[in-house]
Specification:
By secondary structure, this protein is α/β, with parallel strands linked by helices. The protein has helices spanning 56-71, 73-76, 79-95, 97-108, 112-132, 168-181, 196-207, 222-231, 244-256, 279-291, 311-324, 342-357, 392-395, 411-418, 434-443, 477-482, and strands spanning 22-24, 27-29, 36-41, 46-52, 139-141, 147-155, 158-162, 185-189, 215-217, 237-241, 261-264, 269-273, 301-307, 326-327, 361-365, 367-368, 382-385, 402-408, 423-424, 426-430, 448-451, 467-468, 471-472, 485-493. The protein has a 7-stranded mixed beta sheet, with helices on both faces. It has a 6-stranded mixed beta sheet with strand order 9-8-7-10-11-23, sandwiched between helices. A 3-stranded antiparallel beta sheet has the order 5-6-24, with no helix packed on it. Helix 9 (244-256) links the parallel strand 10 (237-241) and strand 11. Bound molecules: NADP nicotinamide-adenine-dinucleotide phosphate and magnesium ion. Residues 162-164, 166, 189, 191-193, 221-223, 226-227, 230, 241-243, 246, 249-250, 264-266, 298, 344, 347, 397, 399 line the site of NADP nicotinamide-adenine-dinucleotide phosphate.
């Protein structure tokens, strides 16, 4: 018997349209060629709707609409008025939380509880940046006699937002809300696998009073619509979240046009557990940080580094937890849902199988819920032990519910292993020793270090971004909004 009852039966769902159109200049618009892309529910493997297969023409229409809004209705708003609109959208997203959560759950396979959290987080981004919009100040600078110098923060203009499929609503909120608060207009290219909440929230924005063209969403394939967005001469800044390889392509396209990019490219984040840690806190947090969104979280804690004297005890507790985990349909709210598509499933399983063939030990594996659809994209949560830190499984991003356990002997070795990958996004440190907490936090190469807690995907108020191959630029917090501005220096000689 499975432990959790189904929470949403199909009959209780909001109806999903059979096709979603692009959202350009405040209108629902089909792709000019009439081509569409099937949208799969990862829980069942079945097609449940379609999106537009757009390209350069639709991107161009969207950029022009955004430029008109930037020089027109949106550009004329004061910062306070922009903030009020963002706050209104935050409230409207929460009013639509049931509908949007069901859409996100269907589109990504996430358990409903997580989908609801993601929609609440999306609303929270608009709330946060709504409050921040009129608090972004410039500076005055002491300079030559009789001269006043102003460093004024100005928006870039039209910003491009390339969004992945793992947290579609959250990452839309993170980047679009910050860009709008700073005064930009947006063209969004969501991932082909998960466009629906971006489209729906943008329509809701229009409904609550955003001017047409302030937000535009163009769906399609990355190699077509995404590449066209990165290369469009009207895009003044691009924020990209996704793989290191695609991030490099986007940055290359931007470099040719000399425009700035923010890249958020994932990680191989360590959870470092010392023997003196509070295990009651550490163990559930460590498990949650790798099963959340089925391990498809850029900040997933995908390596657990355990002090050797506590290794067996910690592994026993982790094993017990992993053995009890159940994977099932998003709407059934099991411990975790499917991964996004069969290609990702095969990639993850291929990496795990290769590691097992190389002698890595399978410590524990969860199970599939009774009655889970046979064609769903399910990956069983997997705990691997006796992993050599130099092995690919301990160094490469898996982007699935796979945790690798590595033993260390002392602080110096823990730091060496923690910093021993190309990535540097986040890290968790678990110890009661205050001096060690600070030593570790300073020594770890990562954009965020959590001590005795771990914020996978959370923390709207906390500056966020990578070191090394995890990317550059910062999102979230005030820092995220600053990134969507540039400084104009005005020097006035008045005698
Ligand atoms: P990806 O190619 O980096 O996709 C991310 C976004 O970029 C999507 O919107 C995608 O659109 C778009 N895109 C793809 N090719 C593009 C191009 N040439 N120019 C501009 N945009 C383009 O990621 P993926 O292939 O879906 O996943 C591969 C791996 O990336 C995963 O296994 C995981 O390791 C990593 N990943 C990391 C994150 C993260 O949060 N850090 C998120 C997702 C994936 P389409 O999806 O429509 O092609
Ligand atoms: Mg989908």
């Amino acid at each position: 018997m499975d432990r959790h009852p189904a929470q949403i039966e199909p009959a209780a769902r909001h109806a999903v349209p059979t096709e979603f159109l692009n959202f350009i200049d405040g209108c629902q618009v089909p792709a000019s060629g009439g081509a569409t892309v099937e949208v799969i529910d990862p829980s069942t493997g079945e097609v449940f709707t379609r999106i537009q297969r757009s390209g350069a023409a639709e991107i161009d229409d969207a950029v022009r609409a955004a430029q008109r809004a930037f020089h027109g209705a949106w550009g004329k708003l004061t910062a306070t008025e922009r903030g009020r609109l963002l706050s209104r959208l935050a409230a409207a997203i929460l009013e639509h939380q049931d509908e949007l959560s069901e859409l996100e759950c269907r589109d990504t396979g996430k358990p409903m509880v997580q989908a609801r959290n993601d929609i609440a987080a999306c609303a929270r981004y608009f709330e946060y940046y709504g409050g921040a919009a009129d608090k972004l100040h410039g500076e005055t600078i002491p300079y030559a006699a009789g001269t006043t110098v102003l460093a004024v923060r100005v928006p870039h203009g039209v910003t491009g937002h390339i969004i992945p499929w793992n947290y579609p609503a959250q990452i839309y909120g993170r980047s679009v809300a910050a860009a709008l608060a700073a005064g930009n207009c947006c063209v969004v290219k969501p991932a082909e696998d998960a466009c629906l909440t971006s489209l729906r929230v943008s329509q809701i924005a229009l409904d609550v009073g955003f001017p047409a063209g302030a937000i535009n969403v163009v769906c399609g394939l990355g190699s077509e619509a995404g590449a066209a967005l990165s290369a469009h001469p009207g895009i003044a800044h691009i924020s990209f979240t996704g793989s290191t390889a695609t991030g490099a392509l986007v940055a290359e396209a931007a470099a040719r046009r000399h425009v700035p990019v923010t890249l958020e490219l994932g990680g191989k984040s360590p959870q470092i557990v010392f023997a003196d840690a509070d295990m009651e806190q550490a163990i559930p947090t460590i498990v949650n940080a790798i099963i959340q969104s089925a391990g498809q979280t850029c900040t997933a804690g995908s390596r657990v580094l355990i002090e050797r004297s506590a290794f067996d005890a910690v592994m026993a507790r982790l094993t017990e937890r992993f053995d009890a985990l159940v994977v099932g349909r998003g709407q059934d709210d099991r411990d975790l849902g499917p991964v996004i598509n069969h290609r990702q499933r095969q990639k993850i399983m291929g990496m795990v199988d290769a590691a097992l063939a190389d002698g890595v030990k399978l410590a524990a594996r969860g199970r599939l819920a009774d009655g889970a659809p046979a064609n769903g994209c399910y990956v069983l949560p997997t705990l691997l032990a006796e992993v050599d830190p130099a092995h690919a499984i301990a160094r490469e991003e898996i982007f699935g519910p796979v945790l690798v356990a590595i033993a260390f002997d002392d602080e110096a070795q823990a730091i060496e292993i923690a910093n021993g990958t190309d990535y540097g996004l986040t890290a968790g440190v678990w110890t009661r020793d205050g001096a060690r907490q600070l030593r570790m936090a300073h020594a770890i190469e990562a954009g965020q270090v959590f001590v005795n807690n771990y914020g996978a995907g959370g923390g709207i108020e906390l500056p966020f971004g990578g070191m090394k191959h995890s990317g550059y630029g910062r999102e979230k917090a005030f820092e995220g909004m600053r990134g969507f501005t540039t400084i104009k220096t005005i020097a006035i000689k008045h005698g």
